[in-house]
Amino acid sequence: MQQTAKLYSFIGKKHPEFILQNKKIPISPDIAQPIGKVLQRLPRLVPPRQVLCYNALPSHFLINFMSNHTSWSSKIGFVLAAAGSAIGLGAIWKFPYTAGTNGGAVFFLLFLIFTVLVALPVQLAEFYIGRTGGKNAVDSFRVLRPGTQWLWVGRMGVAACFILLSFYSVVGGWVLNYVVHSFTGAIHAGADFEALFGTTISNPAGSLSYQALFMLITVWVVKGGISDGIEKANRYLMPGLFILFIALAVRSLTLPDAMEGVSFLLKPNWSYFKADTMITALGQAFFALSIGVSAMITYASYLGKDQDMFRSGHTIMWMNLLVSLLAGLVIFPAVFAFGFEPNQGPGLIFIVLPAVFMKMPFGTVLFAVFMLLVVFATLTSAFSMLETVIASTIRQDERKRKKHTWLIGTAIFIVGIPSALSFGAWGEFKVFGKTIFDLWDYVISAVIMPIGALSVSIFTAWIQDKQSVLKDAGAGSTVPRAVLLLWLNTLRYLAPIAIIIVFVNSLGIL
């Protein structure tokens, strides 16, 4: 018996109208699935190439050639984008100063262990939810557990990305401002870098202007979509970041007494092996892989079922660890070579490093290069935050992307204005003893991220059917079943305990 296939049209920027628009073709059921598979694998016929085969009626078999779903054009595109999301300021800014105040090598060793044993399994759980659900951070939970309240996890993540980008863009603006400082002569050997940083963050016009510029760049990339926007940008930014980092690390390691900084980073001082250092390293591990805010769920929703998410997850993790190591090898040898202390806190890259670089030949150029790679890392993280929000509003209808990206990007900038003014005009305005910037930072990093990570772990390991999770997570992977079981049991027991410890500590209870 013959049934009917309907091929829906697609009109794209670079592609003509699909020639079989609305044309009904008699087709037998035994060849409907092969046709669907062929269409699904056509390389870049159109950017969105998902094919859904389903029975609309007992007498009709439809192949719905969807024009409103997009995907990564390659595995490396996903890996670079997800690695860019994870690296960000966490690896280049937060890791060095946190390591510097917590003993260097001991902190790095604990950070490495916790990243592999705890943070990576949670990241893989987010990959599972996004890839299996195949939709945005909210609708993926709706697909996996329809009719339940688990949607709030995705909604919380989307809200977190909106708020996070509102104050993250402020720091991104500072970084852009410092790049400009490097080329306009404000960064020089005789400069007062503490005063320069204070002026940079407290000047309302300058702070808001560079915040707006940072958001403009982010919106411009994200409005281009996954393959033509985010993926294309990361294909240039991420390799550029590694090349610049390696070049700066080589220069830093050739300085006099540089090995003292290397020893600080790689030779453990076991007097720092204590509970506070362990909890801080555990928190940094979660922050480093960009988990708990649904960004990885969103990125994984564009990942094909035939892709090995475990291999991708490990690659992303090691790229993040490598960047953290390179950041340490750039900063600490230079800091020790010129007699500075490593425990400088958050002002390390804005106050101490300019002074360090100015003591080197061509220091102004080298510092400009360093700040440029910080810009790269900051932007790649911002892309994922904005995409998480956009994906939840357009709900796979790419026709809405440009309009929604401009509107939401503008809204994020407006919401971020109080954070930008927290270091100047609104510095005295505080809520619960915190400025607006510090309040949002605390809410996201100390409350929402741990709750989000804990919820993802419980959902994957306890709520979902065990066999279904193993099957869906292992699709496209050669990982043995024993490893899959180890991953699932880590999510069941070890990850929740670790997350609760971080959460309780962040609330000041421990």
TrEMBL record:
Keyword match Magnesium: no
Protein's UniProt keywords contain Membrane: yes
Domain of life: Bacteria
UniProt membrane topology term: Multi-pass membrane protein
GO molecular function, one term: symporter activity
Transmembrane regions listed in the UniProt entry: 76-93, 105-129, 150-171, 208-226, 238-259, 279-304, 316-340, 360-386, 406-427, 439-463, 484-504
Origin species: Neisseria gonorrhoeae 3502
Record's protein name: Transporter
Annotated localization: Membrane
